[in-house]
Amino acid sequence: MRDIRNIVVLTGAGVSAESGIDTFRDAGGLWEQHRVEDVATPEAFARDPDLVHRFYDARRAAIQTKAPNAAHAALARLDAAWPGELLIVTQNVDDLHERAGAARLIHMHGEHLNAWCSACDQRSPWTGPLIDRPACPACGLPGTLRPDIVWFGEMPYRMDEIYHALARADLFVSIGTSGAVYPAAGFVREARAGGARTLELNLEPSEGGYWFDEARHGPATALVPQWVD
Ligand code: BJW
Fold first, then answer.
1. Of 66, 52, 148, 74, which Cα lies nearest the Cα of 107?
2. I need a labelling partner for 55 at 20 to 30 A (CA). Which of 6, 37, 70, 226 fits?
3. Which amino acids does the record list as binding substrate (predicted)?
């Protein structure tokens, strides 16, 4: 790590798996017999908002019963101690990184514990259900709130900041993600193009595993503390 100053860490569902949160593709990608790709879209929400609200209300309730694990804790230690630039970009919509203490963090696919108003464009902290069409705390209109989640076909958040950090990175580390969903799956190539070394920490080789300079395979709660400490 001697020549390394700027680090970008990308995390996916595998980081939260050992906290008891199901990953997407390991669970067969199914929920109530629907493919996740058919629920997590703006078209699905327009077609059947109750179905989409039920899906997210259940998951919003579930994550509040989970706790960060040793991988989240190790990344928070790295964030606190690393003197150079560091950015943790998570695809996860749970709040386990921040509950572990990470601060330099971007939720590129949104957050379960936010609701977004399609009328006034404000985001509000949200822990309860949305299916009963509550009023937006910001503008007061009923039935305008949706989960603050980036669905397929929508633009992930804060991409300019992410690409800027990738271009400056000396080290890019991808943890617990299958590499199946873009644009995150392309970050390793962006980082390489900018001259970064690249490391994958995952239970198994990911779809784009061959793009990494080095790969270590095993559970995140073992691999991440090993790498950080
Ligand atoms: C462990 C472990 C342990 C398990 N320890 N590891 C055709 C080609 C290319 C692209 C497209 C295409 N058609 C459409 C697209 C674009 C589309 C896309 O990528 N689709 C693919 C399915 C092909 N992408 C989009 O639409 C995105 N927007 C977009 O592209 O806008 C245009 C744009 C262009 C250019 C620049 C910028 C923008 C939006 C994507 C939104 C993704 N949203 C979801 C759903 C959120 C809702 C919800 O939570 O309900 O986000 S999809 C789902 O997948 C979720 C995740 O964040 C994301 C990634 O999944 P992740 O985290 O990798 O989980 P898994 O389950 O796949 O993998 C877990 C891994 O962990 C596995 O490898 C395990 O082995 C491992 N593991 N236990 C360590 N203990």
1. 148
2. 70
3. 56, 59
Q: How far is CA 5 from CA 26, 83, 112, 168, 185, in A?
A: 34, 8, 32, 9, 23
- For 67, the token pair is 């706790």
Pair (229, 133) in one structural domain: no
What residues are in contact with ligand 1 under a 6 Å CB criterion? 12-14, 17-18, 23-26, 40, 91, 93, 109, 149-150, 152-156, 159, 176-178, 180-183, 202-204, 206, 219-220
In this structure, the answer to whether residues 55 and 134 fall within a common structural domain is yes
How many beta carbons lie within 10 A of that of residue 90, not counting itself?
A: 30
H or E element in which residue 16 lies: helix 13-17
- Predicted structure pTM score: 0.96
Domain region containing 129: 24-65+111-149
Same domain, 10 and 46: no
Select from 24, 52, 200 the residue to mutate for testing ligand 1; criterion: most ligand atoms less than 8 Å from CB. 24
**Does 14 count as an annotated binding residue?**
yes
| pLDDT tens, per residue, the chain with 229 residues | 668 999 999 999 999 999 999 888 766 665 666 787 778 899 999 999 999 999 999 999 999 999 999 999 999 999 999 999 999 999 999 999 999 999 999 999 999 999 999 999 999 999 999 999 999 999 999 999 999 999 999 999 999 999 999 999 999 999 999 999 999 999 999 999 999 999 999 999 998 999 999 999 999 999 999 999 9
Domain end (from 119, 149, 179):
149
User: At 13, which CATH number?
Assistant: 3.40.50.1220
